[in-house]
């Protein structure tokens, strides 16, 4: 039901391209997954997501459990029918909220107890409960419950997080029952090689269908993240998909691919779009800038998305100036298409053994500016 085919590895780096077979379709890797935290990628219809080139999308266990509740989603046919998305879906376990909602949770070796950010109600999330919720939601790929500590946590806290994540992974492995879901283990350990190795060793014994690298893009510098990937990714099985959670900027995706990562997700394309910032072939564009007021050119002359094919920079700036909701929607479509173009072009570069050259060209274009 789940098979990962490694088709080619770049001769000048660890970049690789492959195909991951899932119950709802094949994902060509490397791949970027748009984030639909609450069951919707903000401002974008499912058919528009498909038109951008998205193959797989992500939703969040914590948020969907609070509203509308996993049983409601199950009653409405599971996530695919609920969201109107026929392709593969991945759900995070709520482990990132251990980090992002630190002020609203209590953590011990058995569970994390959240005080809802919505109404103060209690969500008691154990590893077994995380599995039950994700089985009810029905995503193709699901994640073990883990502890994602902040990047500046003391080593003693990172050691505790690694130990807790490993214990919870074993419970998740034993509890999870659905054969039509791939359960991923999550490697933690901050930016410390020994802790990452300890975490990977504990998870590899459990023989997960795939492995994620967690605990990055949480405040460390890009250089620290890349260095951590340098020593972490080789610890993970070559024959299984590797997922870098919550990353990130286009250059971060490129750097991750060069280090052997296959799957990525991030809210950045749509979040930046809502804040009037576009990713283009020659750098970022701030759409509220007065210089675009009478600009008749498309947002990105090299982009084939519906936004660039139909609308001018002047019109897009107008939408943001007057607060029209169409502005964030059109920019979201463009940014998502930009990300998909990056990974599509990366796949081609890997097949021609030119991934390093692709990176150099991307950096040069970004320096040129829009």
From TrEMBL:
Residues 14-366 form the tRNA-guanine(15) transglycosylase-like domain. Its cofactor is Zn(2+). Its EC number is 2.4.2.29. Zn(2+) binds at residues 303, 305, 308, 334. Residues 246-252, 270-274 are annotated as: RNA binding. One of its GO terms (cellular component) is cytosol. GO terms for biological process: tRNA queuosine(34) biosynthetic process. GO terms for molecular function: metal ion binding; tRNA-guanosine(34) queuine transglycosylase activity. Residues 1-20 are annotated as: Disordered. Pfam families: TGT. The active site is at residues 92, 265. InterPro entries: ArchSynthase1/Queuine_TRR (IPR050076), TGT (IPR004803), TGT-like_sf (IPR036511), tRNA_ribo_trans-like (IPR002616). Residues 1-10 have a biased composition (Basic and acidic residues). Pathway: tRNA modification; tRNA-queuosine biosynthesis. Keywords: Glycosyltransferase, Metal-binding, Queuosine biosynthesis, Transferase, tRNA processing, Zinc. It is an enzyme of class 2 (transferase). Substrate binds at residues 92-96, 146, 188, 215. Binds 1 zinc ion per subunit. It catalyses: 7-aminomethyl-7-carbaguanine + guanosine(34) in tRNA = 7-aminomethyl-7-carbaguanosine(34) in tRNA + guanine. Belongs to the queuine tRNA-ribosyltransferase family. Homodimer. Within each dimer, one monomer is responsible for RNA recognition and catalysis, while the other monomer binds to the replacement base PreQ1. Catalyzes the base-exchange of a guanine (G) residue with the queuine precursor 7-aminomethyl-7-deazaguanine (PreQ1) at position 34 (anticodon wobble position) in tRNAs with GU(N) anticodons (tRNA-Asp, -Asn, -His and -Tyr). Catalysis occurs through a double-displacement mechanism. The nucleophile active site attacks the C1' of nucleotide 34 to detach the guanine base from the RNA, forming a covalent enzyme-RNA intermediate. The proton acceptor active site deprotonates the incoming PreQ1, allowing a nucleophilic attack on the C1' of the ribose to form the product. This is Queuine tRNA-ribosyltransferase. The gene is tgt.
